[in-house]
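User: Okay, second chain of the day. Same drill as before: sequence in, structure tokens out.
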Amino acid sequence: MKFAILLVCIGLAVAAPHRYVRSADTPNINGTLIQLKNYANVAYWTELEIGTPPQKFKVALDTSSAMTFVPSADCDVKLPGCAGHETYKSFKSSSYIGIGAPWKYNTNPNIAGFLSVDKVALGNLSVPYQTFAEGVSLSSYALNQSQYDGVLGLGMESTDKPNNFMSNLVKSNQSLPIFSLWLNKDPSAELGGSLLLGAIDTTKSTGTQATLRLADSGTNGWVVQLSSISVATGNAINIQGKALVTPSTPFLSLQKYTADQLHTSYLGGRVISPGKYAFDCNKLDQVPNIKLRFDNSQYLDLASKDFITVTDSPMGKFCLSNIEGLPTTLPGDIEVVIGSVLLRQYYTIFDNNNAQGPRILFGTLKA
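Assistant: Same drill. Structure tokens below.
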């Protein structure tokens, strides 16, 4: 994952329930609305409390993992992921229970530590005995570039990870097994977005653009099947691969050879470094839109204006692509990662409250 976040004030709130529905199929239950902060459309995050008395941490939302983690007080401050971050101090919490079992982050071997148990709270929701990970080996450069401390694991529960935060909220009747996500496109707005636990905000969407069943990836991530990527000019690239849907990265990440082909052959872009691409700022109106096709039948659109970031520097203007190239597949043979560059364009519902099995729904945003 790629993160680059500066310090922003956090806010949490519970909104009025009248505009929420229980799931995509059944109405009328209150949800808990968690406000998010947005730094430059790069990442979206909120505040989590751990321990008694509570220790506060800034956490990004991650649907690739079922495990929540924050830096440990035992973390080596010389490592890039430890320096400058809040650390969990178990000796200051009267509700701490030690486990000590080793832990590694599923998509980044540079992030590792051990498991602990303590009270964990998000907004007005809390789990008294929540397993989480204390990060000790945090040599990831990406974490050093962020001003949040760890991640809130919103991945699927499994037999080997039966104790994630969302499933414990469900078991304690604090939430239904569904959450929905709205990401603000305006990085200057005070409200960066919202995570709604247990319900759907019907004021955000005019209807469902796509309903995608999960693919079997052998991971805890919310993974779907991506068939192809087509370009408005009529060209298409066959993918037929698994795609992880997560707001924890700002990019649409493809296999490097696919991203190279997409940019240089169809989008008019150029390679500026391995897996990174740019466009001629004077020809942005010539960059075509793209369309992602899932399960050979359903589509999501991504306009070129939404996957190009224009930045100014002393050296001039740069027009960078938010579609990147991955050097290899991720665990579970995941070839594609669909991040906030696409999720900002839709109201995204992660629904594990459906009789036919878990699914992700993408709703068309209201103007």
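Confidence is low (pLDDT under 50) at residues 1-19, 24-29.

User: Thanks, on to the next one.
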